[in-house]
Structure formats: C-alpha cells, structure tokens
Specification:
Layout (H helix, E strand, L loop, with lengths): L1 H21 L6 H14 L19 H27 L7 H6 L1 H7 L2 H20 L5 H9 L2 H10 L3 H17 L3 H15 L9 H11 L2 H19 L6 H9 L16 H5 L9 E2 L2 E2 H22 L3 H17 L10 H11 L3 H22 L5
Antiparallel strand pairs: 1-2
Helix pairs in contact: 1-6, 1-8, 2-3, 6-7, 6-8, 6-9, 8-18, 9-10, 10-12, 15-16, 16-17, 17-18
C-alpha cells in the first residue's frame, strides 16, 4: 500500500506542476485544435472537408478531434457551473469567472488530454519497472514525469504526441504484462487508438505486428484485428465518411505537412542542408528522401531480425528505442517533437544501467532545446 501511495503522490505533484504552465502561454497549433473541437461540437458531418478561414483544415484523426471537442465541452460546463454558483452565492470567489472566460483558459483546457496522458505514461513506466524488479523505480519514473522536455511538449506547447505515446505504451504493457490472451489481444485496439490520435504511430506498426503474430493465438489475433478495424472505421462514421473515404482521408496526410529535409527537427539532414531545403535535393545519385527511406528500411529489417531471435522485453524495447532515434535523425519531413517516443523507450531499456542515466539526461536536454528554440515560448 505504501508503494502504491508513493507513486500516486508523485503523479499528483507532476500534475500540479503541469498546471502551472497550462494557462500563461500556448502555441499557435492549439488555436487550430480549439476551432476543430468547437466545430465538432456543432456538427461533425463534413468536418474533414470544411475550410476554416484563418486556420488549418482538420488533418488529425478522429480520436484527436473528439478529445478537442470534449476539452471544449468540459470548459463550457465548468463556466456555466461557476456562473450559476457566482449568481447564487455571495461567498463564491468571483475572480474565477473572468479567469475561466479568458481565452488562455480555452487553450489551456485543450492541453489537459496531453497532460493526463503524461501521467498515464508515467504510471505505466513505473509498472514496467515494478514487474522487472528494477531498482529505484520512483527515481526513474520521476526522470520521465519531471522531464522538462516532456512537460514542455504537453503543458506549454499543447501538442498531442503524449496521447499517442501513451496508447503505444499501453499496447505494449498489455502484450508483455497482460494476464490473459484476451487482455493481450486488446493490445491491437489500443494501438489503433494511438493511430487515431496521430498518424506517426504507424512508424512503429511493423514491430507491433511482429509481436502480435509471434505471441497471440490465432483466435485472439483475429478477434483483436476484427475489433480494431471496427473501431477504426466506426470512429469516422460521425464525420459522414464511408470506410473507403475514411482510408483515403487518413492516408492523405501520411506524407507529412512539408517536403523539407527537416521540419524544425535537429536531425542529420538539418545539419547538412540549410533551412527550407526540399528533400528532393540530391546527395550523389539519389534524392535525400530516397536515401532516408533506404536507410530506414535497411535498419528496420535488421531490427526485426534482431527481435525475432530474442523477444525478451528489454531487447524489444531497445529495438523500439533505436527505431525511434532513427525515424527522427534519418527521416526527412520530421518535426522536433517526434523525438518524444525515444525518451520513453530509452528509459525502459536502460533503466538498469546507471551509466545510461547521463545519456538519458543528455538526450532529454537535446530534445528540450530543440522544442524550446523552435517554439520560442516563453518569449524571453
């Protein structure tokens, strides 16, 4: 009981720390989330074909849109409740009303799903450490929960990568630590949840597919696949999209939002080429885009062969860590925030080796500086 209470104290402190950064500033991306969420509350039909003047078209999958809508609805309900209490009781603190009517609060509430996902990821990391009987689980979990890069991404920037990462980790947790075949097969559904928040989850699909094929009985595999496909297409139904239209909409954004060698990520190509360079530029006989794809496919084949020989969780997690680094440093069109999964898989891989902690702190600092110097918030 003491151990359980201790981890929840850490989670509460981590949550309160994130709330400090929720209100003051935000990124321009969150303005899109607000508009999309409000539009979904009005009418989801046709949302993906709607052009929002002054804002980006909705290009996130359905689960992300639903979370934006729920965040907006939650704030609206709280505003109405506080207004009622303020009008009904003289002792109600009236300063709350203008605070919750401030536009920053609207943007702040959109950060809540990412913040809660941070906490969920931290709890899963702790449970992985407990299951593997790794020393200092509280300290190691705190390295994630109080990591400036992690806090910055969800609580300052307001990005939703933390939600995708949470579902990716939950899917792994169920596969490695699920007590029944049914629990393990639900891993497929939570992976689909990850893909329905951000398409970048598909980078890890080959590893998850290998894990399912090797470890799930055929019946459970087919059941998990069936329900996962059902969830995917059902999530698009409120938007009025048929299965074919849903697939077309989903894959339309897979190529990325730019064709640059880097989209603000401090990766290998960022060091070689000036800002704004297109990934169609040639390095020798081949374009940079082609070279990056060849390198990644070659590494993917090697890593899959590696895990086929040893499925021990540490080997698998280590392969995911290497892959997360590779898609960030070798792929073109990558954003600065796409390094985030490496912080999770790296911590789970090397937690038993105190010498790695210095490397983890270094990687975290690199990630934080890339995030901070790209967004430049706070404005100092």
């Amino acid at each position: 009981m003491k151990k359980i209470k201790s981890i929840y104290v850490i989670l509460v402190v981590a949550f309160l720390l994130r709330l400090i950064f929720l209100f003051p500033q935000y990124s321009g991306d969150v303005k899109n989330h607000l508009v999309w969420g409000n539009a979904a509350l009005t009418n989801t039909i046709g949302l993906y074909s709607t052009h929002f003047t002054g804002f980006n078209d909705a290009n996130y999958p359905p689960l992300a849109i639903y979370l934006f809508a729920v965040s907006n609805l939650f704030l609206s309900l709280l505003r109405n409740l506080f207004t009622f209490l303020n009008n009904s009781f003289s002792f109600f603190p009236s300063f709350i009303i203008p605070l919750f009517n401030h536009e920053n609060m609207s943007y702040g509430f959109l950060k809540l799903p990412g913040i809660l996902a941070d906490l969920g990821t931290g709890l899963l990391i702790f449970k992985f450490f407990q299951a593997r009987k790794i020393k200092h689980p509280y300290l190691l979990t705190s390295l994630y929960l109080f990591n400036p890069a992690v806090i910055y991404l969800s609580s300052v920037w307001g990005q939703i990568e933390p939600i995708t990462n949470f579902f990716l980790l939950l899917s792994l947790y169920l596969m490695f630590l699920g007590k029944t075949d049914r629990a393990k097969s639900s891993s497929l559904i939570f992976f689909i949840f990850a893909t329905l928040t951000k398409q970048t989850a598909l980078w890890f699909a080959p590893f998850y597919l290998f894990l399912w094929l090797k470890n799930l009985p055929v019946r459970q595999l087919l059941a998990g696949a069936f329900y996962s496909i059902l969830v995917f297409f059902a999530s698009y139904l409120p938007f009025g999209l048929s299965p074919f239209a849903a697939l077309k909409n989903y894959f339309a954004t897979l190529s990325g939002s730019s064709t640059g060698v880097s989209d603000a990520a401090w990766n290998f190509w960022y060091l070689l080429y000036p800002a704004g360079a297109e990934d169609s530029v040639h390095l020798g006989l081949l374009s940079v885009r082609t070279i990056s794809i060849v390198l990644l496919i070659s590494l993917l084949v090697y890593l899959l062969i590696r895990v086929s020989k040893n499925q021990y969780p540490r080997t698998f997690l280590n392969s995911l860590f290497i892959w997360a680094l590779a898609v960030f440093f070798l792929q073109t069109r990558v954003h600065e925030r796409h390094l985030a999964p490496a912080l999770i898989f790296g911590l789970l891989t090397f937690a038993e080796n105190p010498a790695w902690w210095v490397g983890y702190v270094t990687l975290s600092l690199f990630h934080f500086l890339n995030l901070f110097l790209t967004l430049k918030i706070p404005f100092i």
